[in-house]
Amino acid sequence: MLRATALAACLFSLTLAGCGDSASDDDYDELEGKRYAHRYFQVDLHGRSLVSNEPVVDEREADIYRKTQTVLIESGQVLNSALRHDDLSEWESIPEGEETLDWIRERLVVRFPKGSEVLEIALVDRRAPKEALVAAVEAISKAYLNEVVFESKIQRQKPRDILTESYRDLDDEIKRKTNAHQARLKDASSARLPEIAARIELLKQQIARLGDARIGAEQELLRRLVDLELAGSGSGDEADDADDDSDDNEDAEEAGQSASDTEPPMEVVRQAYAKHTAKLDAQIEELTVEVQDLSKDDPNLAARAAEIEGLKSIQSDILNKIEHWDIELKAPDRVSAFGSVEFIEP
After folding, report:
1. pLDDT digits (tens, 9 = 90+) for 111-131
2. Which of 14, 72, 95, 186 has its CA 20 to 30 A from that of 289?
């Protein structure tokens, strides 16, 4: 039993040792021992905002970016662009016409070695002339920069251009409306607009306070009537006591004091408060008429002024966004080529 256990342990150790000696996926090099030309690109997978200095994308998005670059380089758009600028069919070992594209795809290797931020474009072939492989990689590299990297930068510029155009259009509208508004203010009838606007605002505040006072008077009347109903008293003295409790309603007290002793107390209270609320209504009506008369000068001027201020606020927000984009667009390109095309002979 002990010998079997020892043998099992020995086999397990050998298995672990064998696994340790075998190459991992990260150590695998698909170009090892092959003949090829290649070029490197430095790629900023995560990117950083120049404003916040925070990474723009996380690791999952960075992995998607790797795969996207690979697909784009292998796309017909990039490879056909490379063939348009460099006629590789002049080399005897490279087929002509549509077969050239297939020949390149079969030999093209695009990768990020060991999951790094280095992009490698390579073309592998055992027989093609060195010059042909170098020329092909150079053509593919240029096409990648033109069709993908530079085009991406142009696309990033578009939101800024749209914002700039909106800012200019808004600026023209603000100038046009401001000029029209200033022209109206020059009229004699509009010269006192600021003073009139302040007076209107004051009158509206007074009207609001009077309205609150009227509501309060109605609530106080209801309270007194309820008290009288509960007391069940029919004497005029209690109505007089109710009148004495209202220090802030002088009109109500005067009406209560002049009421006939023969009238029921609840009717005396109603008359007192009716006189008081009627006076409040008259004051509200008077102030309202004054507001209407003042507004006849040009009721739209204040609205136009407010509209212009609103447009200026929007314009300021757009300007802030443009300045933000100006900073972001100064960031280095996420992809940059370094070195030149190299040829590797095993």
Report:
1. 998 888 899 999 999 888 898
2. 186
pTM: 0.49
The residue count of the chain comes to 346
Distances (CA, A) of 176 to 171, 223, 302: 9, 59, 17
Classified as helix, coil or strand, 28 is: coil
Give dist(CA 5, CA 25) in Å, integer. 33
Q: How far apart are CA 131 and CA 148, in angstroms?
A: 25
Q: How far apart are CA 327 and CA 133, in angstroms?
A: 40
Q: CA-CA distance, 47 to 204, in Å (whole number)? A: 57
- The tens digit of pLDDT for each residue in 21-80 reads 333 445 567 888 899 999 999 888 766 554 455 555 678 888 888 899 999 999 989 998
Torsion, Cα 202 247 282 199, to 10 degrees, reads: -10
Give the helix ranges, DSSP H, for 74-129.
76-85, 99-107
